[in-house]
Amino acid sequence: xxxxxxxxxxxxxxxxxxxxxxxxxxxxxxxxxxxxxxxxxxxxxxxxxxxxxxxxxxxxxxxxxxxxxxxxxxxxxxxxxxxxxxxxxxxxxxxxxxxxxxxxxxxxxxxxxxxxxxxxxxxxxxxxxxxxxxxxxxxxxxxxxxxxxxxxxxxxxxxxxxxxxxxxxxxxxxxxxxxxxxxxxxxxxxxxxxxxxxxxxxxxxxxxxxxxxxxxxxxxxxxxxxxxxxxxxxxxxxxxxxxxxxxxxx
Length: 250
Fold this sequence. Notes:
By secondary structure, the protein is α+β, with helices and mostly antiparallel strands. The protein is 50% helix and 17% strand.
């Protein structure tokens, strides 16, 4: 066995860290090629140095223990036959242990950090969404409970509340919408509303309202904007006022 191959282990640890830690996994979901490689390599080196300091400090503390010296000698004797060269076998074994330690830290550290920083998921989502104007807009609409108007490529128009937004680390590029009304856009650009869902939202349960949830793919959206009923009424003669729907709070 060539100890040099153990250098791949910190890269594995770096990858486990960036996809496991909520503050980085949404960012790397958008990265590929050299940017992703450099990010994984950077965190892999950091984990290797942390593992080196950890095991080095542990070895220094236990160096005077008789059982530790015996266990270390037995470990070196067991691993030495697997090494390509037995020169400096003790150092080679220590190097391999540190490399494996970086993988362990790459798996364990995100678990600890995610528990300590429970709000980091929301922060990471906002940071990742800032790289895409559409997703940033959708997240703002969810956070502010703003009504939006969505025009699809087929000309269909929906007005409602965005319930969920696409998650950067997945391939599901869809949103869910609770519609207030729907219609179509004519060639002149005017919107004609034909269906009003507020008649079905008569003080019932949230489950009744969620029966009308729509799943809309992002690639089918032609445009999206905030919708204000007062402004709409100023430009239209009809007075349409969809009922406000209560959203479930977790």
